[in-house]
């Protein structure tokens, strides 16, 4: 796979994945096409050497792995982790708001959303809906309106003269998107709109909408940016970019070594869920794969937690440590925090540097300023739960947690090349 092919495929993946459920569905289709076999957690598993498998939990988290041709207990597993969720605006259970003939939907802020960029964007809506179908069966279906269906208009500067110097956003009152205009006598329920969309998109006749998890998203698709197309802009680069890189790495490995990709939901809200990194999903898969030898297998293994890093912004260079300001398009970033906000240690960092140097590829290091707080990833959670040596790494980006983020066009492909080599490396430690 070449650089241009990689990025064009990435753009398709991003556009097809407006929610964690859609991202997992997209990954599942690619795994199926490559011969990976689905595993049902409710059933017995019979795993064969040299095969590919995957398990899905809640439709929004996935663990995919190759069993390899060697004894997993003594050879270990080369693991890569990422997360499927991104900060966004989620529709509330009783969302209908009617004001002066405008039909709006109440929203709840999910994760650490950078709120101001959500104004004046063309918004669409997607997610999972649980319904009672015509046969009386409860089932889930995914929907994606695809076209712009809503907008959050800014208040004109004439009505807010302090907007450019002192504007704050009230998530309760300022963020409900405008969906349409309706007569004063209108009694349309949001569930009615969902029934129409389900019938149109899925051809499914239903008796009742029983529940949903729906998110607004930027209807503008991913694209290259810059006079020389140096950058790639999209929603959800944090962290679907890492999911894509990890998936492509797993698909392109030789299959001789045991290799695994885990993409968890709910990282942006702390990872404490049945399918989050603080939950038992990955550990359960490993127990069923490795059996009583799980502890020995983990001692031979390593995890690379891939989650984007803060690139040094040319307008805000003082926000970085002067010796640790990653530059876009100059390589993936090894993330270091001695207070264990990142799980990197000298050993795991050394292995990444060694592989990267062998391939002649660039790498950088990030340490947060000593007078600023540090974010975190699934890396420390997975390391703590499993006891596995872990590295935190990521592609440098701008505008993290904005509705539209930016990365260098070269860095994703660089990380892919290193992770692919890592996943098929005969010896980790």
From TrEMBL:
A Gene Ontology cellular-component term: cytoplasm
Family annotation (InterPro entries): Peptidase_M18, Peptidase_M18_dom2
EC number: 3.4.11.-
GO molecular function, one term: metallopeptidase activity
GO biological process: proteolysis
EC primary class: hydrolase
Cofactor section: Zn(2+)
Protease listed as a keyword: yes
Keywords of this entry: Aminopeptidase, Hydrolase, Metal-binding, Metalloprotease, Protease, Zinc
Superkingdom of this protein's organism: Bacteria
The keyword Cytoplasm appears for this protein: no
Coiled coil: none
Pfam families: Peptidase_M18
Family listed: Belongs to the peptidase M18 family.
Protein known as: M18 family aminopeptidase
């Amino acid at each position: 796979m070449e650089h241009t092919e990689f990025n064009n495929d990435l753009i398709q993946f991003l556009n097809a994945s407006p929610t964690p459920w859609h991202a997992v569905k997209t990954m599942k289709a690619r795994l199926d096409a490559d011969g990976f076999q689905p595993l049902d957690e409710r059933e017995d598993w019979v795993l064969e050497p040299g095969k590919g498998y995957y398990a899905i939990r809640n439709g929004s988290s996935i663990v995919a792995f190759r069993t390899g041709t060697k004894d997993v207990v003594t050879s270990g597993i080369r693991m890569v982790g990422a997360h499927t969720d991104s900060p966004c605006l989620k529709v509330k259970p009783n969302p209908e708001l009617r004001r002066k003939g405008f039909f709006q939907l109440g929203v709840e802020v999910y994760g650490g959303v950078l709120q101001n960029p959500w104004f004046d964007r063309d918004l669409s809506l997607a997610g999972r809906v649980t319904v009672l179908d015509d046969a009386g069966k409860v089932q889930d279906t995914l929907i994606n309106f695809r076209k712009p269906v809503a907008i959050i208009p800014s208040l004109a500067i004439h009505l807010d003269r302090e907007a450019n110097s002192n504007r704050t956003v009230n998530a309760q009152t300022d963020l409900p998107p405008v969906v349409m205009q309706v007569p004063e006598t209108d009694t349309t329920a949001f569930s009615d709109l969902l029934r129409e969309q389900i019938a149109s998109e899925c051809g499914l006749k239903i008796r009742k909408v029983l529940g949903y998890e729906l998110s607004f998203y930027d209807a503008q698709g991913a694209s290259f940016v810059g006079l020389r197309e140096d950058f790639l802009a999209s929603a959800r680069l944090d962290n679907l970019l890492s999911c894509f890189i990890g998936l492509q790495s797993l698909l392109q490995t030789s299959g001789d070594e045991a290799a695994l990709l885990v993409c968890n939901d709910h990282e942006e809200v702390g990872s404490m869920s049945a399918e989050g990194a603080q939950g038992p999903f990955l550990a359960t898969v490993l127990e069923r794969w490795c059996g009583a030898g799980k502890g020995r297998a983990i001692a031979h293994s390593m995890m690379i937690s891939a989650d984007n890093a803060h690139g040094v912004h040319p307008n805000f260079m003082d926000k970085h440590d002067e010796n640790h300001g990653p530059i876009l398009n100059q390589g993936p970033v090894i993330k270091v925090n001695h207070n264990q906000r990142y799980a990197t240690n000298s050993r795991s960092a050394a292995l990444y540097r060694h592989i990267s140097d062998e391939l002649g590829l660039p790498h950088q290091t990030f340490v947060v300023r000593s007078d600023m707080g540090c974010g975190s990833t699934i890396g420390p959670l997975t390391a703590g739960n499993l006891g596995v040596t872990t590295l935190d790494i990521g592609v440098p980006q701008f505008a993290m947690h904005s509705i539209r983020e930016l990365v260098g066009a070269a860095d994703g492909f660089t990380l892919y090349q290193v992770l692919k080599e890592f996943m098929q490396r005969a010896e980790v430690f």
